Structure formats: C-alpha cells, structure tokens
C-alpha cells in the first residue's frame, strides 16, 4: 500500500479510502490510485479487508430456483443488479435456494454477506420474518401481503393488469381470458405477482360489466400449447388472451395456430410482465407490456446498499408500471363478434 501511495503521490490513508470505499475520494484521485495499482500489479485482498472492516461488501440475491425456473425476464433482474452493485463498490452473488424457512439463515449466520435481496416474494414469505429476526439488512424485489414496514421495489401488477384489460376493451374485445403461471397454486403458495394480477384482472373486468375468466398452466412451451386447447374448449367465444406466463407464451401461440386460430385476426394475444426478446420469438411478434426488470434490479440493489451505507432515512417503497410495446398480436375484435354484440 505504501508503494501505491508513493507511486500515486497520495497518502496511505487516501489509498485505504479508495480501496475500501470508507470515505469519499474525488474521481481524479481515485483514478490516480487505480492507475498506480494497475501499474504495480496491486490486488485488493478481499479477505483482509473483510477482517479489518467486519464487512465483506458482498450482497446476496436469493432466488428460489428449486421452485421457479429462470426466464429471460429474471436474467434482466440479475444482470442489472450485479452491474449496479459493482458500480457502488459491492459484489453480488446469486444464491439459488428454496423459499423454505431456515435457508436464509444458513447464508447470513456465518457473516458471508452484508445484506440480502429477495426475489419471487410470497404474500406470506417465511424468509422475511427470518431476516427480520436475524437483524440482517434486506430489501425485496416484490411485496408481501402487508409490506408497509418493509423496503421493496416491485412491478405495479395491479395497474398493469388494468392497462392490459383496457387495451383490449378499447379494441372492442369483451370476451377476454387471463392465462397465468401455475406457480401461484403450486410450490410458491400465494405467489405475489400471480395473486395480485388475477385479483386486478377480475376487478377491472367486473368494473366494465364483463365476465372474468382465468386459466393457469406451468411455465414452459409444452404447457402453453396444451393450455391453448384447454382454453378454446372451455371458452370457445374468447377473442382476446392476456398471458402472464412468459415461458408458456410461444407454446400458446403455436397451439392457437394448430387449432386454426389466426393471431390477431381471430384472437388477440397480449403478453404481460414479459420481455421484448421473448415477444420477438413468436410470429407474429407479441404485443407486450414489458417487465421493468433492468430498472427494478438497479433500484433494489440501490435500496439495500443505502441501508448498508447508512444513507436510508426512510423506507424505500416503489412500484413501476410495465410499458406497452407494439407488436402484431393484438387487433380489433373480429367483425362477426362485434356484430353479435
């Protein structure tokens, strides 16, 4: 460290502040120190720094991979969160464990991480109480049933589903069905996004004096293909589908074509909380309310690090709407259906 200080013409304390991010250092001085470190081949000793500061500058992103598969949208959360953590002087590790009580404690009890970011949050998530009791700083990408005392960022599923219904009713559709992810009734009991979205869909349909009809399937293309046949058999008059099941959407479109339904001439399909990349995999390209994955990953990490750095003066609680992006899968209600009404 003395060699770095001498080479950069700064004090040893300034080198320490730069390496450990313990005090503000100007951009110009930081660059001088970093350049000296590169030229001298100096490497940060993460273990030594952790022992000295009693902090690892590592945060963990807990994702229940045993219960929920990783979609393209989920990857957006990961990459954005990791990039933001690095920008703020931290490292982010992905911890793919289950949502069962006790799993989070195994990670936090040994001091490996400074804080935790939770994803795929249940309405009554056992990890939340576990972390509260342990005193570990944490933030949520998602919401529990009663999140008033928690730091969280989340998709505004309630308003997003209202926007989805209104997009379709503005095109004249009245026979609208929702296809969501079976995870809400399987291994993640009362999964927040599924529960909130279905409630909002049903409320908005009833507000417009329409009958809400909902289906569910596993999150994979084969399940989506099977769901197409199920929906058409149970609801032959359907003219529009809202799909909140990213990985099933391509199979659903394939199943509709196999049944002789043209998209959007015979049946409109609107994808919700998905990605533009997934929408582009379907022909025609799906109209989509895109998930703000990059934004939420960044916001979630920033909220957690604000806690760790003592900058959080109040709870951060933010909801972000999905953004409508044009595709070719939604259109006016078929003429014969409009005429009947």
Write the topology of this structure:
Blueprint: H1 2-8, H2 12-20, H3 27-40, H4 46-53, E1 58-62, H5 72-87, E2 91-95, H6 103-108, E3 115-118, H7 126-134, E4 138-141, E5 152-155, H8 157-169, E6 176-181, H9 192-207, E7 213-217, H10 221-234, E8 240-243, H11 249-258, E9 268-274, H12 276-279, E10 287-290, H13 293-308, E11 317-320, E12 323-325, H14 335-340
Parallel strand pairs: 1-2, 1-3, 3-4, 4-5, 5-11, 6-7, 6-8, 8-9, 9-10
Antiparallel strand pairs: 10-12
Helix pairs in contact: 1-3, 5-13, 8-9, 10-11
Largest sheet: 6 strands, parallel
Rg (CA only): 24 Å
Query: What is the CATH-assigned architecture of the largest domain?
Result: 3-Layer(aba) Sandwich
Q: Number of domains in the coordinates? A: 3
Order of helices and strands: HHHHEHEHEHEEHEHEHEHEHEHEEH
Q: What is the class of the largest domain in the CATH system?
A: Alpha Beta
Which features would summarize this protein structure in a list?
341 residues, six-stranded mixed beta sheet, 12 strands, Rossmann fold, alpha/beta, 434 Repressor (Amino-terminal Domain)
What does this structure look like?
- With 341 residues, this protein is of the alpha/beta class.
- The protein has three domains: 2-44, lambda repressor-like DNA-binding domains (434 Repressor (Amino-terminal Domain)), CATH 1.10.260; 58-155 and 293-321, Response regulator (Rossmann fold), CATH 3.40.50; 157-291 and 324-340, 3-Layer(aba) Sandwich (Rossmann fold).
- It has 14 helices and twelve strands.
- It has helices spanning 2-8, 12-20, 27-40, 46-53, 72-87, 103-108, 126-134, 157-169, 192-207, 221-234, 249-258, 276-279, 293-308, 335-340, and strands at residues 58-62, 91-95, 115-118, 138-141, 152-155, 176-181, 213-217, 240-243, 268-274, 287-290, 317-320, 323-325.
- It has a six-stranded parallel sheet with strand order 2-1-3-4-5-11, with helices on both faces. A six-stranded mixed sheet has the order 7-6-8-9-10-12, with helices on both faces.
- Strand 9, helix 12 and strand 10 (287-290) form a beta-alpha-beta unit.
- Helix 1 crosses helix 3, helix 5 runs parallel beside helix 13 (293-308) and helix 8 packs parallel to helix 9 (192-207).
- The chain is elongated, with a radius of gyration of 24 Å.
